[in-house]
Amino acid sequence: MKITPLNDLFVVDSGALNTVFTVKNDIATLFDTCLNKDNARKLSRAVNFNVGRIINTHSHADHIGGNSFFENKFNCKSFINKREISFCYFPELEPALLYGGCPFSASKSRFLCATGFNSIDTLENIETDIEIVELFGHSPGHTGFLINNVLYAGDALFSKEVIEKHKILYLYDVENFVYSLKKIKSLNFEYIVFCHKGIIKKDEAIELISENIAHTEKVCEEVLNVLKNYALTGEEISSEIMLKFNIPFETEYFLLVSSTIKGYLSYLEKSEKIAHLIDKGVKWKRV
Ligand SMILES: [Zn+2]
Predict the structure, then answer these.
(1) Rounded to the nearest whole angstrom, what is the distance from the C-alpha of residue 269 to the centroid of ligand 1?
(2) Cys-Cys link to 238, which of 57, 228, 258, 272 (CB 3.0-4.6 A)?
(3) What percent of the chain has pLDDT over 70?
């Protein structure tokens, strides 16, 4: 793991994602904990401080999977936005959200279904001088943190490489994702750290924000193209999009893409570009 000091904080490149920690009086506040106990153990060795508390950007498994390791080792508490807390107490809600019902066994993979917590509380109950910034969209209560001129933005934006690799970025709420990107532009910060993956200055972030917004516009365009001639269900549209972008038809990919595409359908409906109808399922047509 590579550690980069940045103003008052330290960025840990764990391989899969960037996490950060701050230290005050030899006690660390750790932001996000990677996927599981093994990752957390390595992260703990890298951080090499007593961890006094954990603050999570959101409840996805790759961000909270190591929480219980730190909670047990240091007897510390975790904090997260209240919109995310049910997913932490009942991690099956994440695959349930992606699938749209009680999750089946393959949907409860380690990437989609986190392990539980001993002690997690809402961000309202934390005492801190760190500025809490709501950056909803990627997940319902996704949150960023402004720490001495560095914005730890979690998954509120993604690198160009990640956009190119995954083709469809996982989003829960497209409108809020775009709103949050514009909000980041308006914030005062010197550096932004985001989980997948980068440490960049604000002027580069402005450019990357445009790329992320352009990505959402492109997906909207593709969805409208798929709906050119027929009304289709969300899953049928997702299959067409996966074929078009050459995304493998595997359980995790399909659940992530189809849930994201359903988010795009709600977004397009709100902007009155499509409407739903009931025809052997919930189908979507252009208006
Ligand atoms: Zn995430």
Answers:
(1) 24
(2) 258
(3) 100
Q: Comparing C-alpha atoms, which of 267, 278, 271 is closest to residue 287? A: 271
- Residue 138 CA to ligand 1 center (angstroms) comes to 6
Q: How far is CA 56 from CA 5, 51, 123, 262, in A?
A: 20, 14, 9, 26
User: In a 10 Å sphere around its CB, with 0-12 CB exposed, 13-18 middle and 19+ buried, how is residue 189 labelled?
Assistant: buried
> Does pLDDT of 33 surpass 80?
yes
Give distance in angstroms: CA of 88 to centre of ligand 1. Answer: 13
Distance 56 CA to ligand 1 centre (A): 11
pTM exceeding the 0.85 threshold for the entire prediction: yes
* Cα 170 to averaged position of ligand 1 atoms, centre (Å): 8
111 CA distance to ligand 1 middle (Å): 10
131-150 pLDDT, tens digit each: 999 999 999 999 999 999 99
Amino acid making up residue 9:
L
Is the CA virtual torsion 7, 182, 226, 254 positive or negative?
A: positive
Angle between helices 251-270 and 202-226 (to 10 degrees): 90
pLDDT band at residue 117 under the 50/70/90 scheme: confident
Chain centre distance of CA 223: 22
Q: Which domains does the chain have, with CATH numbers?
A: 2-163+173-205 (3.60.15.10)
Q: Angle at the Cα of 153 (from 96 to 21), degrees rounded to 5?
A: 100
Distance CA 11, CA 91 (A): 27
CA of 58 to the centre of ligand 1 (A): 7
Residue type, 31: F
Instruction: Give the whole-angstrom CA distance, residue 143 versus residue 139.
Output: 9
